[in-house]
Structures are given as C-alpha cells and as structure tokens.
Design a protein that fits this description.
By secondary structure, the protein is an alpha/beta fold. Helix content is 37%, strand content 19%. Strands 1-4-3-2-5-6 form a six-stranded parallel beta sheet, sandwiched between helices. Strands 7-8-9 form a three-stranded antiparallel beta sheet, covered by helices on one side. The two termini are 36 Å apart. The model has no long low-confidence stretch (mean pLDDT 96). ATP binds at residues 35-42, 152-155, 181, 189-192. It comes from Methylobacterium brachiatum. It catalyses: (R)-pantoate + beta-alanine + ATP = (R)-pantothenate + AMP + diphosphate + H(+). Its EC number is 6.3.2.1.
Length: 282
C-alpha cells in the first residue's frame, strides 16, 4: 500500500483519462465520496475500497446544495492538505477535488428528488438536503465512473436514498454500505464531533447506548412504542434535544410497530449546537 499523497485531480477531463487507463488495464475502480474533514471512519471506507478494488478514488467536495439556510456550510471544517495526507496513508490512488463552479456551473438547473425515503426522519428537518445529496452523488458517479461506491452506514437514510436513486436511474454502479466506525465509548465518528465541548463529549456516547438498549428490547418482537418513549426521555434527561427517535423498516424506512423484518433504530438530536445522528441494526 502506498503512503504517498494521492494524485489530485481538479480537472474532470484529466480524471476521466486516468480512470479510462485503469479500466483498459482491467482494474476495478472504487469511489469513496467525502466532504473532507476526514477521520478514521472515512479511512475505513478507503481501506474497504482497497480490499475490494484495485484503484480507489476519494472525492473531497463540501456540497453547498445539501446544507439548509440555517446549517453549517460556512463553518464546516476544511483542511485539504491534511485530508490528502490521510488519504495517502490509507492508500487512496486519487483525490477528486472539484471546485463549486465545476460541480454547479452557471445555468445549472437540474436536481434529483427521491420520493418516499426522504419524507420521514431527517427529511422534514432538512428540507432540500436529500435532493442536494442525490444530485451531487449522481454527478460524482457519472464523473468518476466507478464499479463500486462506498458509503458509511452512520447516515443510513442517505445510504438508502443513494441506493434508490442509482437503481431508479439504472446507473451501472454498485452502492455498498460500510459499518459505522465508533470511538471506544460507542460514539459514531463524525466530522461534527469536533464541535462538541469537553462536557458535551462526555455525554455524547449516551446516544448510541440508548439505541442499543432499544434494539435489544425490540429484537424479540416487543412493541417499540414504550422503548422509544423511554429512550427519548433518557436522552432528554441527559441534555439532548431530540428531533426524532424511531424504529424503521431497513428497506423502506417506514416506522414499524414491532420488529418482524430487518429494521433500524435511528436518531437525530442536538447536543448543544451540534446535531448528531446515529443508527443501529435490529
């Protein structure tokens, strides 16, 4: 595995020429889309890409169209040189770092909306978010042309939205989810964790603990209403402002009354000014 800085592309034609060369050589190409501010969770995606493919391209693009008017686009952490060094350590072959003008040139007017999957959970709290995600990911897939693209399961709704968009649009790429990487105390790795104060950081692992408790209770078919109510109360007592806490069908993301099929326990909550999301399988 190389630990050198990956080849950086900011010109689409150059990127496509390199990918075409790899394909002519019969090499499997894997894409890891990111918004930068990389952490071990992202590096786990690159490592998985190295395992299943021959070439790994990581994109770094802070996508403005998936941020709402009151969200943190301007303060989203950016450190391209550090990100490139981390990608080199993880063994990425290339970094695709397009400018906003490259992704959204003057006159750009197309957006992709995925119905159904976006109507619950984060959807009502982040209007337009998933349209921005689906649009930028579709562009990235068309730009890089990978065989497989990898996404962390921490944002499970995002993963399902992308899988649906790719299936509906007949895009020739496999979308794979990769299990969430966690700190030793259970907190899911996230670029936004750096916004937590030291005091908030000690409280934050309670989020995953409550999800695990609900999953354990729901696994035997117990109705989920009471465990959800108890979990919400526990989170609020710990200082979280809960936007949603739900047990949903893992395919449709529709809420379930009891678990009789693959399901997920999902949560979004503010701790101070920081919005945290997480989920666990049931």
């Amino acid at each position: 595995m190389s630990e050198s800085i990956p080849q950086r592309f900011s010109d689409l034609a150059s990127l496509r020429r390199s990918v075409a060369d790899w394909r002519r050589a019969g090499e499997r190409v894997v894409l890891v889309p990111t918004m930068g501010a990389l952490h071990e969770g992202h590096l786990a995606l690159v490592a998985e890409g190295r395992r299943i493919g021959r070439r790994v391209v990581a994109s770094i693009f802070v996508n403005p169209t998936q941020f709402g008017p009151n969200e943190d686009f301007s303060r989203y952490p950016r450190d391209l040189e550090a990100d490139l060094a981390l990608l080199g350590r993880a063994g990425a072959d290339a970094a695709w770092t397009p400018a906003v003008e490259t992704m959204y040139p003057p006159g750009f007017s197309t957006r992709i909306d995925v119905a159904g999957l976006t109507e619950g959970l984060c959807g009502p709290f982040r209007p337009g978010h998933f349209s921005g995600v689906a649009t930028v990911v579709t562009k990235l897939l068309n730009q890089v042309g990978p065989d497989t693209a990898l996404f962390g399961e921490k944002d499970f709704q995002q993963l399902r939205v992308i899988q649906q968009a790719v299936a509906d649009l007949d895009l020739p790429v496999e979308i794979q989810g990769v299990p969430t990487v966690r700190e030793a105390d259970g907190l899911a790795l996230s670029s936004r964790n750096r916004y937590l104060s030291p005091e908030e950081r000690t409280v934050a692992p309670r989020l995953h603990a409550v999800l695990a408790e609900i999953a354990a209770t729901a696994r035997d078919g117990t109705p989920v209403a009471a465990p959800i109510a108890q979990g919400r109360a526990a989170l609020e007592a710990a200082g979280f402002q809960v936007q949603y806490l739900a047990v949903c069908d893992a395919r449709t993301l529709a809420p379930v009354e009891r678990v009789d099929r693959p399901a997920r326990v999902l949560v979004a909550a503010f701790l101070g000014r920081t919005r945290l999301i997480d989920n666990v399988a049931v």
